Amino acid sequence: MYLDSVLTFIQTNQLGLIIALALSQLFTWIVLVFSWRKNRKLTQSLQSLPPNTLEKIDQYQSQLVEIKAICQELTQLQSSNKRKLAKTIQHVGFYRYNAFPDTGGELSFSLALLNEQQEGFVLTSLYSRQEARVYAKEIHKGSLARLSPEEQEAIRRAIIEEK
């Protein structure tokens, strides 16, 4: 029964089906002609290249692979250097002053040397007519506990210096 209905449809629409098949065949031929022309142009272009071009392309491709590996190495090295650099002295603050009223010329000083996390030390030199003393105090996370106002000023200058 189903086959009979299909045959009836084909017989009644024979002309339309033939036209549709002919149009699809024509479209296929047009696509084939354009593809053949494009293929011919590409073949001619490849033939016009110097004879060792494909070898050079292979060489360039292998060089690109090497360059990519080097870039990855450099990226890893840069990350390592960033971690190391964070621990180095990056902020310096210097403050000169008169520690004692009987001396002139601001011969005493405090020098703050801090890393990226504001850790490091403050070096203080106190100069008087009879002697000179040098003190070093460790700094953790920018703490200002047990520091003289001059040492605090040196740290402030070190921190502000970056901004």
Written description of the protein model:
The protein folds into three domains: 1-48; 51-85; 91-162, no CATH class. With 163 residues, the chain is α+β, with helices and mostly antiparallel strands. The chain contains four helices and four strands. The chain has helices spanning 2-12, 14-48, 53-85, 149-162; strands spanning 91-97, 108-114, 120-127, 132-139.
pLDDT under 50 segments (min length 5)? Answer: none
Please state the average pLDDT score: 89
Strand fraction: 15-25%
Tell me the span between the first and last alpha carbons. Answer: 90 Å
Overall number of structural domains: 3
Q: What portion of residues is helical?
A: 55-70%
Layout of helices and strands, plus pairs?
Layout: H1 2-12, H2 14-48, H3 53-85, E1 91-97, E2 108-114, E3 120-127, E4 132-139, H4 149-162
Antiparallel strand pairs: 1-2, 2-3, 3-4
